[in-house]
Specification:
With 165 residues, this protein is mainly alpha-helical. It has one domain (2-164). The chain has 6 helices and 3 strands. Helix 2 packs antiparallel against helix 5 (101-121), helix 4 (60-77) crosses helix 6 and helix 5 runs antiparallel to helix 6 (130-164).
Length: 165
């Protein structure tokens, strides 16, 4: 185990520490402005798509599988609103209850990306398997779908508050 950890580049440690700090921040009650609810879905979608394109190429089939994962997650989750949301229509702020879901997803995505890099470096044959590629693309799409569904749920809650005012 120690030899595996010693072979990891320093920037991987910086990424995981940053993700953990960000995840802990998401686990607490926080007040956001409307623009900031878009940051996490945009970043995670970019990371996800970039991962597919870098590892497998911009193959239409792979992008379609990613899209199918994203859309199926959006359909199942149906734009989930976090448990406790308080929207202040006067100053455009949103108070959101903490959740461990974002950190869980970020760490799982990090592990998936790290494993992919490891497989590429070790020239693992599995990385060329169509089943494996489709599975990874589907997972990336599902994970992005959760972040986007949460954002859309918050937007729907904002719209309902504005309609009631």
């Amino acid at each position: 185990m120690v030899s595996v950890l010693s072979e990891i580049n320093v920037w991987w440690y910086l990424v995981i520490i940053s993700l953990l700090c960000l995840g802990v921040a998401h686990s607490r009650v926080r007040t956001l402005n409307v623009i900031s609810i878009f940051i996490m879905p945009i970043v995670m979608t970019s990371i996800s798509l970039l991962g597919i394109i870098v590892f497998f190429g911009a193959v239409p089939l792979y992008l379609a599988v990613w899209s199918a994962g994203l859309m199926s997650c959006l359909l199942v989750v149906n734009y989930a609103v976090p448990r406790e949301v308080n929207i202040e229509p006067t100053d455009q702020s949103i108070t959101v209850a903490g959740s461990w879901l974002p950190i869980t997803l970020m760490v799982v995505i990090f592990i998936l990306k790290y494993q992919m890099y490891s497989m590429v470096l070790n020239q693992d044959e599995m990385i060329e398997s169509l089943r494996f590629i489709i599975g990874v693309c589907l997972l990336y799409g599902l994970f992005c779908g959760v972040f986007i569904a949460r954002c859309l749920g918050l937007l729907r809650a904002i719209k309902q508050v504005r309609a009631n005012d």
